[in-house]
Write a structure and sequence with these properties.
The structure holds two protein chains of two kinds. By secondary structure, chain A is largely without helices or strands. Chain A has no helix or strand. Chain A is about 0% helix and about 0% strand. In chain B, strand 16 and strand 17 form a beta hairpin. Classes of the chains: A little secondary structure, B alpha+beta.
Chain lengths: ~25, ~475
């Protein structure tokens, strides 16, 4: 019944991936 | 995202815990399919009656999961922890598996945001529900520490009102309409949230969906929660992470595809929020009790408190002359007894009066220090003298008792004789009278006969003469 691992394809991100979350 | 606050106090809401009712450790689960602007969305709403004892933040795959940057499906993590209801929890880095934000799991602090200002939800040791923004100092509070804590993004409802606009400004200052953060708020997707209602019950929300195709946005989720009497809530991870597990089995429709595109697969996520059977706080009752139906039953006679971590030796509290321990009062030097209320007997001193005095001439010593200088040596007796005096005292006592007894016996004898004599004389008089009475004329006064005798000389008969 195992259909394999998730492809992690429904991404819902609050911040852009590239953005460094550095404090100011 | 944009602000980091290490010290001081930040805006958050603290809600008192619901009153503890024995046996009320249950949960209420509701399944819904509701229409949001003509879109049918399915999901679950779970309420936990006693959050302090029934709610836990779990690390992926068990304790140590965040440190190991592990990822696990909600089913895997929930089964190991025996969760009745479980959902995905906080945000994490997809590529590394790193837990993001603050994570406190069953009193263990396993991840820190370093004061980064995103929405937090937690439970303190006394059961207080905390929602909002926290400085690092507040997260690290030791007086009433967090026993469960996790981070979300966007404070949805604050004190009964939608708080999305304000939290957008706090959690990121770039609130342009087309920005990624704004899209995150407004896009429809699968969503999860955590909060509490007016009764202090913990509320978990889950809605199925798929980003930009199905599901709800944060505004719709906040309005739905408001209708369910939720007063404070934050948004947790959504999209493909949104997963709902009931009694260890997947009970939602995750949006991630499997390797085989035909099917949908639950994502391996980071932290999990779990509602379980009531547990004690702490689960091991500090090693001084056993957990029965979420309540610690303390062992021994002196452990008290809901977590069996308070020593109580009774109202006298060792009479302020000792320390309460798990075996009872440990008395200060010079004191003894179960409540440390008695001074050491003469000739003994020290803790528990266990040490004999070692003074010359058998003198008593200071019960606390054992110091012999408290009494003059002159007043103390040699053992032989002491024995002699004791013998004398005993002899004196015996003699005194004997004398006293004899004296009393003599008095009793005299008293008996006197009473006997009195009794005999009275009996004699009664015998002469035979119950009547008689006159006794006076014979003479100052040597002269009375007038009656003068008038009746010789043989005149006097019937009354005795």
């Amino acid at each position: 019944l195992d259909s394999g691992a998730s492809r992690d394809d429904d991404l819902l991100l609050p911040y852009p991936r590239a953005r460094a979350r550095l404090p100011r | 995202d944009c602000t980091r606050v290490r010290a001081g106090s930040r805006e958050h809401e603290s809600w008192p815990p619901p009153p503890t009712t024995p046996g009320a450790g249950g949960l209420a689960l509701r399944t819904f399919v509701s229409h949001f602007r003509d879109r049918a969305v399915a999901g679950h709403l779970t309420r936990a009656v006693e959050p302090l004892r029934t709610f836990s933040v779990l690390e992926p795959g068990g304790p140590g999961g965040c440190a190991a940057r592990r990822r696990a499906t909600v089913e895997e993590t929930a089964r190991a922890a025996d969760c009745r209801v479980a959902q995905n929890g906080g945000f994490f880095r997809m590529n590394s598996g790193e837990c993001l934000g603050n994570v406190v799991s069953d009193e263990r602090r396993v991840s820190s945001s370093g004061g980064l200002q995103n929405a937090q939800f937690g439970i303190r040791r006394d059961g207080t529900l905390v929602t909002g923004y926290l400085s690092e100092e507040e997260v690290l509070d030791t007086e009433n520490p967090f026993v469960q804590l996790l981070s979300g993004v966007v404070w949805l409802i604050r004190n009964g009102s939608i708080y999305i606009n304000e939290s957008q400004a706090t959690e990121c200052d770039e609130t342009q309409e087309t920005g990624s953060f704004s899209k995150f708020v407004n896009v429809i997707s699968a969503r999860t949230a955590i909060g509490h209602d007016r009764k202090g019950q913990l509320v978990l929300f889950h809605a199925d969906g798929q980003t930009e195709q199905r599901g709800i946005n944060l505004w719709e989720m906040a309005e739905f929660l408001l209708k369910q009497d939720v007063v404070n809530a934050i948004n947790l991870d959504g999209g493909g992470s949104a997963t709902f597990v009931l009694n260890g089995t997947l009970a939602s429709y995750p949006s991630d595809h499997c390797q085989d595109n035909m099917w949908r697969c639950p994502r391996q996520v980071s932290t999990v929020v779990c509602v379980h059977e009531p547990r004690c706080q702490p689960p091991d009752c500090h090693g001084h009790g056993t957990c029965v139906d979420g309540h610690c039953h303390c062992t021994g006679h002196f452990w008290r408190g809901p977590g069996c971590d308070e020593l109580d030796c009774g109202p006298s509290n060792c009479s302020q002359h000792g320390l309460c321990t798990e075996t009872g009062c440990r008395c200060d030097a010079g004191w003894t007894g179960s409540n440390c209320s008695e001074e050491c007997p003469l000739g003994w001193h020290g803790p528990g009066c266990q040490r004999p005095c070692k003074c010359e001439h058998h003198c008593p010593c200071d019960p606390k220090t054992g110091n012999c200088s408290i009494s003059g040596v002159k007043q103390c007796l040699q053992p032989s003298e002491a024995t002699l005096r004791a013998g004398e005292l005993s002899f004196f006592t015996r003699t005194a008792w004997l004398a006293l007894t004899l004296a009393l016996a003599f008095l009793l004898l005299i008293s008996t004789a006197a009473n006997l004599s009195l009794l005999l004389s009275r009996a004699e008089r009664n015998r002469h009278l035979h119950g009547g009475y008689a006159y006794h004329p006076l014979q003479e006064m100052n040597g002269e006969p009375l007038a009656t005798e003068k008038e009746q000389p010789g043989g005149a008969h006097n019937p009354f003469k005795d």
